[in-house]
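DATA SHEET
Item: assembly model
Revision: 1
Owner: S.N.
Input lines:
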Amino acid sequence: MNFMLDAISWFLLASGCFLCITGGLGLFRFPDFFTRMHAASITDSLGSGLIIVGLAFQTPGDWLVVAKLGFILVFIFFTSPTASHALAKAALHAGQKPWQKQT
Amino acid sequence: MRHILFLTAGLAFLWLANSGHYSGLILSLGALSIAFVVFVTIKMKVVDAESQPVRISYRIPLYWLWLSKQIILSNISVVKKIWFSPSSIDPAVARIKTSQTSDLGRVIYANSITLTPGTVTLDVTEDEVEVHVLCRESLSLLQNGVMDQQVKRLES
Amino acid sequence: MFIAAAAALLISMLFALSRAFLGPSIYDRILSVNMFGTKTVLLIAVLGFMMGRPEFLDIAIVYALINFISIIGILRFFEYTHPPVVNSSEQNGESDS
């Protein structure tokens, strides 16, 4: 049982770290600000979610730690869309043009 | 009154889950600060159906489950684009009709769109949202209005 | 194994930081700093588990709060104090309105 929990936890942590690195790579492979925002949104949503759920599997029975991890997760999930919406709106307001594919 | 009770319960849960010390002194300090916060929010007149959405709170876990599925699916497609074909993206800006009637519904809808990778909300008006999408396929997924219906059901 | 997770997080923080240095417009930089802040929260949590002291989670919660407030504050500042930029590859800030 303990081994199973450990395996699930490490799987979640590894895929979360992979997603974080992918998001960082996406910042370099996409051409303009608005498309880079989609790459950053990967790490904010699923990357942090997987890492925090993976950490929660490391503490069986310690409900305080799980509750605190849950607070962090809910807080990130509530604030990251707000922050990226404010960012996109400020960029549009300042006259940034979204990049379009040349056809 | 229901909203005040809901707020007090939420604050008490926040205190108990974050403190970890259950001696008499700490608990009474917690009760004191909860009472103070509730007093201030009543004075500010912000305790209403918008800040304390009691009505939707028992349906929201199901919605979160559905939203997580959407997030995982769109994450996979964006990750594929980043690693294998960053040149295949086709970004576009479009306005999409929503059927939301309340401010809360509009905010939940816009934030859910932003939270799924590949789509970002740029602007929200009375009956439309302006979105920026990473490729046009996800635009058609938004236009058929599945997420809109889910948020609508949350409030009914 | 926590060390591997922390190392992976540090690598992606390095990506975010270098984009913050390179980023052509001010918004690219703010985006990278926001991402960097989210990673820092996760790194603090992982480090807490690595050292066997989950009390670090309190610091992570506080850092998440500060990160959000600071991003919103910086955006309010730049949304209203800078002249609109026409070309995204051009640095804004030096030109006067």
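QC remark: Chain A is about 80% helix and 0% strand.
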